[in-house]
Specification:
Length: about 140
């Protein structure tokens, strides 16, 4: 049986900020590959999500706050959003929380697949921070 999520517009914005922000953090981490390719591959992975989380992530809406001037400014917004999204989903439907976590991590993995030689130390550290934020709830 699937539990219907009760999400406000603000809740949906938090989920979108968290997920798409995780991909933006990878770009901000100073990838040596094409930032456009990283962003595109990660976003396509998020857009292909399923379940109720998939419906939220696929919604056509502007995502506020992903235009930070630095990785630190972006992380200040995105990492807490990842934790908040997980807490919100765990409270309503743990299966959807697992779906969200898996979706974000698949997007992160897909985003870095375009890098020749794999992610460098800065990007690996950003991936670690994203994972820690997801698991903090």
């Amino acid at each position: 049986m699937t539990v219907e999520l009760t999400l406000t517009d603000q809740d949906k914005a938090t989920l979108r900020t968290a997920a798409y922000g995780a991909v933006s953090l990878l770009v901000a981490a100073g990838a040596t590959g094409s930032p456009h390719r990283i962003a595109t591959r990660g976003s396509i992975a998020l857009f292909s999500a399923t379940g109720q989380v998939g419906h939220v992530l696929a919604a056509k809406s502007k995502i506020e706050g992903l235009d930070g001037r630095s990785a630190a400014e972006l992380a200040d917004r995105v990492l807490p959003a990842l934790t908040a999204a997980m807490a919100l989903l765990k409270e309503q439907d743990p299966a959807e929380a697992d779906n969200f976590r898996a979706t974000v991590l698949v997007a992160v993995e897909e985003a870095v697949r375009s890098l020749k030689g794999g992610p460098g130390p800065a990007m690996n550290e950003m991936i670690r921070k994203i994972t820690v934020a997801l698991d903090a709830a």
